[in-house]
Design brief:
heterotrimer, A alpha/beta (about 150), B alpha/beta (about 270), C alpha/beta (about 675), B: about 270 residues, alpha/beta, 2 domains, six-stranded mixed beta sheet, 10 helices, C: about 675 residues, Rossmann fold, FAD/NAD(P)-binding domain, 5 domains, five-stranded parallel beta sheet, 18 helices
């Protein structure tokens, strides 16, 4: 049987991590193809609801990454995001969702290799955790709603 | 009670307030909220150990606001903290509310910022024993057990939004649940919609919840949902040293930051 | 229904080698809303761009997705191409299938599928894109320069010489700043005042510069191109038009023993005073806190001596509002006083002075008229110990940073001392010698080799008085930390350069950020060193961090060029990637409930309070409003808004949501 291949969504900021991932490309550093990148202007813009939506619809893992502290293009968006993540992560854990499924990182525009490393590690770790079983229950309801045409998007 | 009646009489007679929100005798030995506008009605006010529900919630209702400020509220320690928090969130101004509290067997009216803050600081919200038991129970559970616990509890939710209506800090005119472009929170009470609602509720109240428990009291199917916001408040308190409801000018804990906030979980 | 065109680029072999571009184009053609889908060898080439332009016209496209390289590379190119064909440029997005796909994965079915996924999500986003229009704001072509030191003077002159009006505000009675206090300047040893005063005079006489001395900026509102500054002109108690600067009043004043700020407390001045002989403007002010008349109601000696009757005891502070388009902050720095240092006697020894005080002792216009005489008894010191890094690079004192100028001015001090006291001996205790400017290291070598200044590498542990001498105890770490004790006649501390008192309040009034040492922070430490995070406010000189004169002047000119570039246009065009608070039909008017959580989240103070009123003027509620002139589009407020009342144009909730859920659409 083929090994489980996790689906991972990466929420990244435009100025550091997106540029860092660009550098990974320019440096031709290969990494696992499981990740899909969504570009935000800043980590401060990343809504936790989007992370929830990704899991519900079938993501097995989520990467959230932006500029290192003090390097934010907008000075403090990443600091605000960090606070939000501290609370969000605790709540998910409290409600019984494995926090290891969300990987937070700082990847700068110069850290092309770190991006490749981050993705590879994330894929490895989430492959070990297996499919996001906490959300399987939800996925079927999502299918059900879709059949009714009830989901917008 | 006599003191409360005297105080209420005085406030209405002097037209110092437009309405007094208080507790009255309900059915089956329970109390219910009453809205006193006339001197004759003052006698309906009761104040005893049964009066625990947070009446500050009515301060946000347009039906009450139309009477005009100032409004008097018969208050528990949780109510005072709520009012302080509402002032911090620019929903009320100092002077809008005459806060009636019991202190050493006398009734005091708090209006000024300093009085409100001092009372709020000196009178923390105390959880009833069964809440503490439940918190301890969850603390001991493994993450899988917690998942099962919440799956079972949340399965009961049919999204009546009584928790939202009862919460004095859920005052948005258009709740996120009513936003459908995009549909952040699924309407139906299936696991998706329920999960989305409760995680949003907890996130929205993080650093704001004053832990009055109104949501849990209101829940018709008995889900201990206050535990979620209590947990959110706990982490805000522990990580950011912030307690809501004690400072009328405090900026929100989640829309501020410290450069040295913990980031052990960030790679 | 949307009519989206998808253009898949091969980038020669860069994409096509690992991704089946034809397959990507075909797969996308099947997606809802896609009206046209094609692959081509080089989309960014002229024929490639033409392909897009033609398709927009022929297929009547309502959106464009270019699947090619990173949007950070070619987004402007393709948006421009779309605009040329009459499509709103913000309806065009790029899907990055090169850097994020073809370059990082091997040739395989999976890589092609990933590319399709990437394009799919961007198509979903474009379906929700809205046409956006650049934001235009007018520009008031007047600059406000705060601070009349060398940085402020240079910035003001550069901007004024480019043909724009400048308002220069200085809080002291004269411009000139610290540079006016210096004796000679390193590494050339030319006289500081000789090179500075012509510039000061030029400022005063420049027809485009309005100079307000003895004035402070109290508040700043508005945004880039459109600021309003409130300036308090403190009462000088003289009529400047009548005053000729003859100085009779200064001589008449009976109060003479006020420590002179200009001479760093080493000299005295009267209550009505001109800070130094070359002051600009060369007219006195009355220090009301020390004036006998203002303290007791009697005296008025100065008034009786004034030949032009220019004294005005009844003058009030004047507050004026000025409209400016840009602000240059050049408020400079100060140095720690010797009272800060317990190990050096908390300032109780008169002959332990700071570097700036020693400058005054060396200066020909100083209290000793340029002769090196120590403050306690006026004797010529035969042994002088210079201690560098007094406070700087000392985390225990809360100052981790290097003050940058001390190594150089200490070498200069020691050298000038040796030039004036030939039989004297100068010792310098140092941690490292940082002499990295042009001609700087040569200068320090000269001090050591030609003027025989003794440099001792080590810290000083204690300074105390013994038999009329100041004993300096230290260690020479190059001699195995051997203890060194020098019986000195005078000690000069190169105390740390620190932010001005009041820097924090000024930053808050201007809405600019500052670091934990209260130095103002630049927008980017490397690439935007003279801009602040608030558009239209710039930094020059040591208010950002300690700097020497050439650096301050260089930065001031850089700042001036930024201001001049800003003023080169009548209107500013800004990317419409800004946040917007929604509006809706009555009775809600807006779903914003005015909790103003967004206000503290905004790094740019772009969120204002707006009162919503009905047509007859009844207040409905107070809601948030985003000032598009200030908003930079980070979207932090958007993610915070509980009722989803704020949205970010270009990265709207609908767009981001569509992008995420599309990943999992079958």
């Amino acid at each position: 049987m083929k090994e489980f291949e996790p689906k991972i969504v990466a929420f990244v900021c435009n100025w550091c991590t997106y540029a860092g991932a660009d550098l990974t490309g320019t440096s031709r550093i290969h990494y696992a193809p499981n990740v899909r990148v969504v570009r935000f202007p800043c980590t401060g813009r990343i809504d936790y609801n989007l992370i929830i939506k990704a899991f519900e619809r079938g993501a097995d893992g989520v990467i959230v990454s932006g500029c290192h502290p003090n390097d934010c293009h907008y000075t403090s968006g990443n600091f605000h995001a960090r606070r939000r993540w501290i609370v969000f992560r605790t709540l998910l854990e409290y409600i019984g969702i494995d926090p290891r499924r969300i990987i937070f990182s700082w990847v700068s525009a110069a850290e092309g290799a770190k991006w490749a490393d981050l993705v590879n590690k994330a894929v490895r770790e989430i492959r070990e955790l297996g499919p996001a079983k906490e959300f399987i229950n939800m996925k079927q309801w999502y299918e059900f709603e879709k059949a009714l045409g009830g989901f917008r998007g | 009670m006599k003191q409360l009646h005297e105080r209420a009489h005085e406030l209405l007679e002097q037209k110092a307030v437009s309405v007094i929100i208080g507790y009255g005798e309900g059915t089956e030995g329970r109390v219910r909220p009453v809205f006193i506008r006339t001197l004759e009605a003052v006698r309906l006010l009761v104040w005893d150990d049964r009066c625990r529900v947070n009446l500050a919630v009515y301060l946000n209702k347009p039906e009450i606001r139309k009477f005009g400020f100032p409004i008097a509220v018969v208050s528990t320690p949780a109510t005072v903290r709520t009012i302080v928090q509402l002032i911090a969130e620019h929903q009320l101004s100092i002077g809008d509310v005459v806060v009636l509290v019991r202190e050493n067997d006398t009734v005091r009216a708090l209006i000024q910022k300093e009085d409100l803050e001092q009372y709020a600081r000196n009178n923390p919200v105390i959880f009833p024993p069964f809440v503490i038991e439940e918190i301890e129970l969850l603390k001991k559970m493994s993450i899988e057990e917690r998942f099962t616990y919440w799956q079972e509890e949340l399965a009961k939710c049919f999204k009546c939004y009584a928790c939202r209506a009862a919460c004095p800090l859920c005052y948005c005119e258009k709740c996120i649940t009513d936003v459908n472009q995009p549909q952040w929170v699924c309407v139906a009470p299936h696991p998706v919609g329920v999960f989305e609602w409760h995680i949003n509720r907890a996130m929205h109240l993080a650093g704001r919840c004053i832990e009055c428990g109104s949501c849990t009291i209101a829940c018709p199917v008995g889900i201990p949902i206050a535990l979620l916001t209590i947990e959110a408040t706990r982490v805000v308190k522990e990580e950011f040293a912030f307690t809501p409801g004690i400072d009328c000018n405090a900026p929100s804990a989640l829309s501020t930051f410290r450069v040295d906030d913990k980031e052990t979980f960030i790679r | 229904m949307a009519r989206i065109g998808v253009f898949v680029c091969h980038c020669g072999e860069n994409i096509a080698a690992t991704v089946d571009c034809e397959k990507v184009a075909k797969a996308c053609a099947q997606l809802p809303g896609v009206a046209y889908s094609i692959d081509y060898k080089y989309m960014c080439s002229d024929p490639g761009q033409n392909l897009i332009r033609e398709a927009i016209k022929e297929k009547n496209l309502t959106g464009v997705v270019v699947a090619a390289c990173s949007p950070r590379m070619h987004e402007p190119t393709f948006r421009r191409a779309c605009a040329e064909a009459g499509l709103n440029p913000y309806l065009c997005e790029m899907a990055n299938i090169r850097e994020h796909c073809s370059w990082v994965h091997p040739k395989s079915e999976e890589t092609t599928l990933k590319a399709i996924d990437i394009v799919k999500t961007i198509i979903a986003k474009v379906r929700k894109n809205q046409p956006l229009y650049p934001i235009k704001v007018p520009v008031t072509k007047t600059a406000l320069v705060i601070g009349g030191g060398i940085a402020g003077i240079q910035a003001a002159l550069d901007i004024a010489n480019a043909g724009h009006r400048v308002i220069l505000v200085e809080k002291e009675p004269s411009i000139g700043g610290h540079m006016a206090q210096l004796s000679e300047t390193f590494p050339t040893l030319d006289c500081s005042q000789c090179i500075l005063t012509p510039r000061m005079v030029e400022v005063a006489q420049h027809p485009s510069i309005t100079l307000y001395t003895y004035a402070e900026v109290e508040s700043l509102t508005g945004f880039i191109g459109n600021f309003v500054a409130r300036i308090r002109k403190k009462a000088k108690s003289i009529d400047e038009k009548l005053c000729t600067g003859c100085g009779e009043c200064v001589n008449a004043c009976p109060i003479k023993k006020i420590p002179s700020e200009f001479n760093m407390g080493l000299g005295t001045r009267p209550a009505i005073y001109i800070p130094f002989p070359q002051a600009v403007p060369n007219k006195p002010v009355i220090d009301r806190s020390r004036c006998t008349y203002f303290r007791t109601g009697k005296c008025r000696f100065c008034e009786s001596k004034c030949p032009t009757k220019a004294i005005r005891f009844d003058q009030n502070d004047e507050v004026i509002n000025v409209q400016v388009g840009a602000v240059v902050v050049a408020t400079g720095f100060t140095v720690l006083e010797s009272t800060f240092f317990p190990e050096y006697g908390y300032g109780q020894y008169k002959d332990v002075v700071t570097g700036l005080q020693f400058e005054r002792i060396l200066s020909a216009s100083g209290p000793t008229l340029g002769e090196v005489r120590r403050p306690s008894d006026g004797a010529i010191p035969k042994k002088v110990v210079f201690i560098t890094c007094a406070g700087s690079r000392d985390p225990a004192k809360g100052i981790e940073y290097c003050s940058k100028i001390c190594c150089m001015y200490t070498a200069k001090h020691a050298m000038l001392y040796k030039h004036k006291v030939h039989d004297g001996q100068a010792y310098v205790f140092y941690m490292d010698i940082r002499a990295t400017g042009k001609g700087y290291d040569e200068f320090v070598r000269r001090a050591i080799e030609e003027d025989h200044v003794k440099y001792i590498r080590g810290r000083v542990s204690r300074v105390y008085e013994r038999n009329g001498k100041i004993v300096v105890c230290g260690a020479d770490t190059l001699l195995g930390a051997e203890p060194v004790e020098i019986e000195a006649d005078m000690v000069v501390l190169a105390t740390a350069g620190v932010a001005n008192p009041g820097a924090e309040e000024l930053a808050q009034a201007l809405h600019i950020s500052y670091d934990r040492h209260r130095f103002f922070t630049e927008a980017h430490p490397k690439l935007r060193p003279v801009e602040t995070n608030t558009a239209g406010i710039f930094l020059a000189g040591a208010c950002q961090s300690p700097k020497d004169i050439p650096e301050s002047v260089g930065q001031a000119s850089a700042t001036a060029s930024k201001v001049v570039a800003l003023f080169s246009r009548d209107e500013l065009t800004r990317e419409p990637i800004v946040a917007v608070v929604n509006r809706c039909a009555p009775p809600l008017y807006s779903t914003c409930v005015g909790c103003f959580m967004c206000q503290t989240a905004c790094p740019y103070s772009a969120i204002e309070r707006e009162e919503l009123r009905t047509r007859d003027g009844t207040l409905v509620k107070t809601v948030a409003r985003v000032n598009p002139g200030l908003c930079q589009g980070c979207g932090t407020c958007v993610a915070f808004c509980r009722s989803k009342s704020i949205d970010l144009q270009g990265y709207s909730n609908e767009q981001m949501y569509a992008e995420v859920v599309e990943l999992f659409a079958e």
